[in-house]
Amino acid sequence: MANTIACAIVGSRLDYCNSVLAGLSQYNLQRLQRVQNRAAKIMLGLPRRTSSDLALCQLHWLPVAKRIDYKIALIIFKTLSAGQPSYLYSLLTPTSSARTLRSFSQHLFSVPFVKSVISSRAFSVYAPKLWNQLPLSLRVLVKSDSVKGPHDPFANMNLFKTKLKTYLFDAPSSLVT
Predict the structure, then answer these.
(1) pTM, whole model, 2 decimals?
(2) What is the DSSP string of 94-155?
């Protein structure tokens, strides 16, 4: 019951529009992380001084920075799978070259050049950076054929979610710097 309450109160607040928090300063991310850490300790009945990393692992909760990356990667996957919404799909441009290169089969996107930190937080910049840093085994799930047939664009979504969460748990920190 404590898990349900913590997920409903704290988790929903951290996840609500958290893609807007992409590229947030380390100071503000730490403030949000403290809230999540405290909720995990309360849920498990741990004292304040104990490490919160073990509590987050035990609850299978990603840290805040990785939760943001998880949500954005999921939005990218859904956008690429269905081609909708068109306004997001138009922001993702595949890399192109005059010659056929080995990187063509990597499913990479070109990252627009920006001069400011604020501009780097935009979906059109942050999303391609994040997608390009994911392993190829995750990126190819968008276009691979599925058992359900070609009419189901989200056939591999559960597999993508599982592999992405596993990858993010093993990753040392947030992917996009």
Answers:
(1) 0.85
(2) B---SS--GGGGG--BPPPP-SSHHHHTSHHHHHHHHHHHS-HHHHTTTTS--TT-TT-TTT
